[in-house]
């Protein structure tokens, strides 16, 4: 009672009857004792804030984006496919948040401060072999407005690309456009990292914590899955499909675990050897694919002046799309030759598809860096300016155009597959009959493939935050349209995959791949910001050896000498040693706490099993005491009805070694000694 009186928990959330809640409220506010005005005001404020928060949450759930569509998809096709569309909504929110930060800290101050005109271009004389002038990257050979829109040339002088951002020299003003432009992409990547990490931890599969012995009780799903508030026929149909999908996932996971337990050591060794052989072959295919992407990008950049430049503009995106289309097909063919189980086949193919997607983007970035920034190459302009100034007057705009084209091409490919492949295939299958059309059937909606496609587009967007700041706006539009395109494809043109995906496992996989894409985008950006010379006649950092050099300049202008010395020490190598020691201590504490929690969980599970065994012993003793010999109405311990009415487990979801099966008869306390019955209760079934 003292704990309830001193608790700050609201009375309405306590697990007690209404009469008990009134009694607790009287204990907290006894009659005759007046509370102070401050306490009354604070209680009213807490109550009003709680009610306002609940109303806001109800409004958010009612007006949430795509709530009705997500409910329909989840009921008809399961939570695994629903998690893909929820992932699309999550990516849309990330892009809108990134766009909001960029607009608030860069675009709006830039428009408000009205930067000065850049003035006449600086006259530099470059010693470029084979040409006496510097080619203008902003002039296109094809005066086609539509083509310029697709290649990004039409937006070269807009805020879509880096080159249009201008600012005067730094002074003692309180706001710096250069610093905001530099820190905005880094802040966006950090916020996206925190959001992805939080969502990934939230979506961790429960079996990682409960262990391999955990089993979800099917009886609980049978008797407690139905929602008795459902009244409409359509909602009831969706709910029946949802429950059916849950049972299919449970049975498929149980069958897969049973097959793994039945394998012998020789079978496991043979499977390991086949794994190695198949992985080596697939690895060679991946190496060949990324080599093709490297040479396609290099050829496209080195042959800009040829008559085939119209086709070469989209050569790298086309090769990347072709590799990502043919690669999974070859992976599936190699895996199917070994007659793997379906789960193993899907998992192995999925891992290599992730590697291929990320490796293709990494090789595309490296090829651009080698061509534009002369990484690993020796050129006269590279030695003087740090980049290929003869071919790329504003190299940031050129990189932004390549990423812009890659993003446009990915979306156009999604639209083309939906309306030029899936839709005609469905119409032909419905129109004609025969063995071939039955074998062809509708397209199978593969969740991992669609996730990898959308992660590729998001990774390209993150890679272009510095070169193309408004690319998140473009990607937000693409994701919004992709949701409806994929929904139409799923409901009309596709059939659900026979392999079921659990929502927790799917969400964890989605966020893990997205996190790898974020790291892939952050590494080149960090290298460019800290080490690469900016273009000499465009952008905010034209007069800096690297964009990061604006930070020491502003520190020297804004901060006093003591603060400068502190910041310089924090950025020096001398600070890395105490930081490393501190991180080691924190990591040691976290690991120790995790191990202690694991030991406590194991002890509690053992204690739970012991309690179940003890309860069954008490039930057996009570059943012997209640059995009267010669009474036909009583149910003895060997009665099949009494045996069948036993609850199978007091701890559903965990193994209870002593609970199933009949138990040997043990001598219990006699009827003359009823003390043994004290404290014994019969569990209700």
UniProtKB/TrEMBL annotation:
<feature type="transmembrane region" description="Helical">
    <location>
        <begin position="464"/>
        <end position="485"/>
    </location>
</feature>
<feature type="transmembrane region" description="Helical">
    <location>
        <begin position="275"/>
        <end position="295"/>
    </location>
</feature>
<dbReference type="Pfam" id="PF07810">
    <property type="entry name" value="TMC"/>
</dbReference>
<dbReference type="GO" id="GO:0008381">
    <property type="term" value="F:mechanosensitive monoatomic ion channel activity"/>
</dbReference>
<protein>
    <recommendedName>
        <fullName>Transmembrane channel-like protein</fullName>
    </recommendedName>
</protein>
<feature type="transmembrane region" description="Helical">
    <location>
        <begin position="566"/>
        <end position="592"/>
    </location>
</feature>
<comment type="similarity">
    <text>Belongs to the TMC family.</text>
</comment>
<feature type="region of interest" description="Disordered">
    <location>
        <begin position="629"/>
        <end position="685"/>
    </location>
</feature>
<keyword id="KW-0812">Transmembrane</keyword>
<keyword id="KW-0472">Membrane</keyword>
<feature type="transmembrane region" description="Helical">
    <location>
        <begin position="179"/>
        <end position="197"/>
    </location>
</feature>
<dbReference type="GO" id="GO:0005886">
    <property type="term" value="C:plasma membrane"/>
</dbReference>
<feature type="transmembrane region" description="Helical">
    <location>
        <begin position="403"/>
        <end position="423"/>
    </location>
</feature>
<feature type="transmembrane region" description="Helical">
    <location>
        <begin position="90"/>
        <end position="112"/>
    </location>
</feature>
<dbReference type="InterPro" id="IPR038900">
    <property type="entry name" value="TMC"/>
</dbReference>
<dbReference type="InterPro" id="IPR012496">
    <property type="entry name" value="TMC_dom"/>
</dbReference>
<keyword id="KW-1133">Transmembrane helix</keyword>
<feature type="domain" description="TMC">
    <location>
        <begin position="394"/>
        <end position="504"/>
    </location>
</feature>
<feature type="transmembrane region" description="Helical">
    <location>
        <begin position="315"/>
        <end position="335"/>
    </location>
</feature>
<feature type="transmembrane region" description="Helical">
    <location>
        <begin position="505"/>
        <end position="529"/>
    </location>
</feature>
